[in-house]
Design brief:
2 domains, globular, binds flavin-adenine dinucleotide
């Protein structure tokens, strides 16, 4: 079934007023149809840039299962007490009222690639000329022995938005002075490479500020090294003394099991019993809709053409953000936003003859270490040798002045406001 007249009209009022398009043209088949699944940084940005820059020439439908979008980016600032929860929640109304995007609040359950239709959970079918998938990640609940979806309340991940983010903060608030937090970090590739380490910093910040500096945060990492490690580790020492301890796989010898009921974590070398709080961040993979469409291996990510962001399996489908393998680009909101602009430009070229130019991508990942103290890593990227390759990179240095760190945090806050405005308004 096609989107209802109501869906389309709900999204097209402001556009109608601002354009010369007739109602039949807005509702009809003459315009090429792009369906976008997922209203995060990849999907929302692509929908907006397709609708806005084609000036009504492309019919854009955004399928999103949630009414609002809570950003995982800056969720660590919420956990650290630097932002209120409502400051990281955003709405889709402006995308509908200003750009004429039809917002369909539903879960997409299947991509029928033979018929070029997206099937929704209520059975409706949305036909498309091009499909944009940006469903984010799914968690691999089998990747940590003893942990499961049923245990995610007791040992939260906080790696998907909503209640999980709030649970992390509640668990942190309940940690006693002298208590032990164990964080199990994820294997590569995963959403937001510096995210676990920023989160550990925020844990230490809150505990220290609230008179619980005897608490310990132990990070059990399956990786030999992590993003911005050379900056995080001296900063942890300087800011928090012995509160944060990072253990690589050779030191902890692997996670043998966790017991959510008793708060126990067993490694090859040690048993951490009666933990005040265990934060399990498991292995990750592309969101189900992309894997089920045959665009990625069962537990992996979608391979894309680096010049267009199109799936190498099906060139009528673009895959953005965390769900794709983007070469040297990390899985970040900034990356997803940058990829979406390239994809929207390419699709506008194909569908309405707009001019195109070679793909160029950018990203920066900021991480807060403490109050007025942030670090960053980032770069510029281009298609090279069949992949998205870094052509220029930068990273904060250990021992930078307090003023540089303050400026970096000011950039971080300004970036958040700017990218959210870019996505949702
Ligand atoms: C703790 C943490 C901190 C982070 N900090 C930063 C940071 O500082 N900077 C940064 O750039 N990035 C950061 N990130 C990473 C960032 O959040 C992700 O990279 C980004 O959200 C990816 O965008 P996306 O569009 O690919 O997916 P998502 O943001 O996950 O959006 C996917 C959307 O699709 C919807 N959806 C999924 N499947 C379906 C379906 N079948 N039908 C309908 N709707 C569907 C979901 O509801 C969701 O709204 C952080 C992540 C975490 C966890």
């Amino acid at each position: 079934m096609k989107p209802t007249r109501r869906d389309l009209v709900a999204g097209s009022g402001a556009l109608l007023a601002a354009s010369t398009l007739s109602v039949p043209a807005l509702l009809g088949q003459s315009r090429p149809r792009v369906v976008v699944v997922g209203g995060g940084p990849g999907g929302a940005t692509a929908a907006k840039y397709l609708a806005r820059d084609s000036q009504g020439g492309i019919s854009v439908t955004l399928v999103e299962e949630n009414e609002t979008y809570q950003t995982c980016f800056h969720s660590n600032l919420y956990i650290g007490g630097f932002k209120r929860y409502d400051e990281i929640v955003h709405r889709y109304d402006t995308l509908a009222s200003t750009y004429g995007i039809a917002i369909v609040r539903s879960r997409a359950t299947q991509v029928d690639r033979d018929k070029s239709e997206v099937v929704l959970s209520d059975g409706r079918r949305l036909p498309y000329d091009r499909l944009v998938l940006s469903p984010g990640i799914d968690l691999n609940y089998d990747s940590v022995p003893g942990w499961s979806q049923a245990a995610e309340e007791m040992m939260p991940h906080g790696w998907k938005p909503g209640r999980q983010t709030q649970l992390i903060r509640e668990k942190l608030d309940a940690v006693p002075d002298g208590g032990t937090i164990v964080m199990i970090a994820p294997p590569n590739p995963y959403r937001c490479p510096p995210g676990p380490y920023e989160r550990a910093s925020m844990f230490a910040h809150v505990l220290k500020e609230t008179g619980r500096a005897k608490a310990r945060i132990i990070i059990l990492d399956p990786k030999e090294s992590f993003s911005k490690q050379g900056v995080f580790m001296p900063d942890w020492e300087r800011r928090y003394g012995a509160m944060i301890e990072w253990l690589g796989p050779k030191v902890h010898d692997g996670i043998t099991s966790v017991d959510p009921k008793t708060g126990t974590v067993v490694t090859g070398f040690e048993t951490y019993a009666n933990c005040a709080f265990v934060n399990v961040i498991p292995a990750q993979m592309a969101g189900a809709i992309a894997r089920d469409a045959g665009l990625a291996p069962a537990d992996g990510y979608c391979t894309i053409d680096p010049a267009t962001m199109k799936s190498v399996v099906d060139p009528t489908i673009v895959v953005l953000g965390d769900a794709c393998q983007a070469g040297d680009m990390p899985k970040s909101a900034f990356s997803a936003n940058s990829q979406a602009k390239v994809a929207a430009m390419i699709l506008r070229g194909e569908l309405v003859g707009a001019p195109t130019f070679p793909a160029r991508y950018i990203n920066t990942c900021w991480s807060m270490v403490d109050t007025d103290d942030a670090i960053k890593v980032g770069g510029r990227y281009e298609p090279r040798d069949g992949r998205i390759a870094a052509v220029e990179t930068f990273i904060s240095q250990p021992g930078e002045s307090a003023e540089i760190r303050r400026q970096t945090q000011a950039e971080n806050l300004a970036w958040y406001d700017a990218i959210c405005a870019d996505m949702f308004t």
